[in-house]
Amino acid sequence: MEGHWIRLNRLFSDGKRAVIVAADHGLFAGPIAGTIDLPRAIEAWGEADGILVSPGMLRNCGHAFSYRGAPMAILRLDWSTVFGSPWGFEGAEPTRILSPERALALGADLGMATFTITMRDEQADLHNVRHFAELVAAKRACGLPLIGELFPVAPQDLSADELFTVVHTGCRILAELGADVIKTYFTGERFADTVAACPVPILCLGAAKLPSEIDALELAQRAVAAGARGVIFGRNVIQSRDPAAMISRPGCSDVRVLPCARPFPPLPSRWRRHPCLRHARERGRG
Q1: What CATH number belongs to 2-282?
Q2: For the chain, domain boundaries
Q3: What global pTM score does this model have?
Q4: Strand residue runs (E) in the chain
């Protein structure tokens, strides 16, 4: 679908990687530092390629997306108990809170939905596959690109080998289900194996707030060196001393221009021949 390609290629235009700010924490954890006054805080994140928000907050933060060159609006489409481990939750039951069609009507450029694979709880895995597959069918019908967030149950309790197994397996399953982009954990040196086995771009999340901003920037650089197509950072940006500087400073901004191990899938051939795109190339924008 043409609308799908328009939106998806804006995120990875010119073969660059993406730097996205996650600001949907209030949907899962209530107000946290950095998002107390989100309509005001979001004004400092204008250098990001995209900003992830919840449906209600898109209405309150529309000014952050409504000008030329603004970040892309990425809208959370679901809620899951997998994010409730701090409350003692032990499962991963997702539920849709917004349809892709409605997300487009609200002004979204992309959608995001959670996916958890346990490889031990048959009913939870079945529910997660069905939930994500239904969203894929709906997003294909309306042309909204969908980011699948692979999030394990209680990731802080997993060993490095366990986390790698879940991420490696889950990323391929998400791609097979029809995710356009994947958001997940960086798993170290073996992350390159996951990238090689996954035909869609993978963005690495920042997870918990790291001890220093340098640690977060080093995580970003290690992830892209292993093949990630960018990062989606929440607390490591919004709770930093200067979020605007964090997005644009060397390390995070360099994520966009480091050489790509695997280029983004090309536009359909009929688009590459389009006169508007040819004109853009001649002017150095394509």
Answers
A1: 3.20.20.70
A2: 2-282
A3: 0.87
A4: 18-22, 50-53, 72-76, 78-80, 94-96, 110-115, 146-150, 181-184, 202-205, 230-233
